[in-house]
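Dear Dr. H.,

I hope your travels went smoothly. While you were away I took the liberty of generating a structure for the chain from your last submission, since the lab meeting agenda had it listed for discussion. I wanted you to have the full record in hand beforehand rather than looking at slides cold. The sequence, exactly as received, is reproduced here:
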Amino acid sequence: VAPREERIVIGLGSMALAVMLFTMIDTSAKWLVLAGLPAMQVAFLRYAIHFLLAVVVFVPREGLSAFESYSSKLQVLRSASLFIGTCLNFMALKYLPITVTTTIMFAGPILVTLLAIPMLGEKVGRHRIAAVCVGFLGVIVVMQPWGTGFHPAMLLNLGALVGASIYFLMTRKLAGSENNSTAQLWAAGLATFCLAPFALSQWVWPTAPADWVFFVMIGIFGGIAHILVTSAHRLADASILAPVIYTQIFPAAFVGIVFFNTYPTVWTMGGGLIIISAGVYIWYRERQAKKGK
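The corresponding predicted structure, in token form, is as follows:
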């Protein structure tokens, strides 16, 4: 198993590239569901192609030992939380702009901070608890549950947020104890086999050339992105990597305008600013706590 290393610049670069690819996953998913493909089929495509990519990349080099896990229960939890979150996110993308789903998902590092208390036994002080509360206030601003801007699909996005947060917690916990190959093969393989019955029973083939491009590329984007994320968590602490996710607002806004003719609203940008500020403060407190050790 490759041990953890302190190669922060490479870790940050890997995470930044992964964030760009996350946007392309969402872009592909939204494009395909709007083209009439069922969300479960789109999720299956994302993982089936990811699984084939992982097999081609890792199995020739490591053999069947690439599938062997030292922490099978944690790998199942990590894998299940990721694909459930993906399915919920893809269903939400049919109804919501990418900027909205992306901004809500920005609360991930904040929720990770909260969930790390019971799941990883980490201690979180009152400053970070206060920042968590402020961050979720930002989520409420984006969702606008009091007005016409609210859409029930935002609740699906909240479920996706919980799934993604557990996935990142398990990635942090397994970093340095499991190979990248094992993490990819389990995450993509479990999702592929669980989603196959639902996807194949309602299969729809693309019709337009652009649909076929996203049909093929969604899994490639997903596979490369998650290989990079797992590598990044081995090369740098999660507390260093966390703020990189906020750079996704720029490509998300760009593809929203270019591909779907949707512009971020004042509520989305304002709530996003609150969430990002809270996340950066949590990042700052974690860095200060590590320096004090």
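Two observations you may find useful: The CA atoms of residues 142 and 268 lie 5 Å apart. The radius of gyration is 18 Å.

With kind regards,
E. W.
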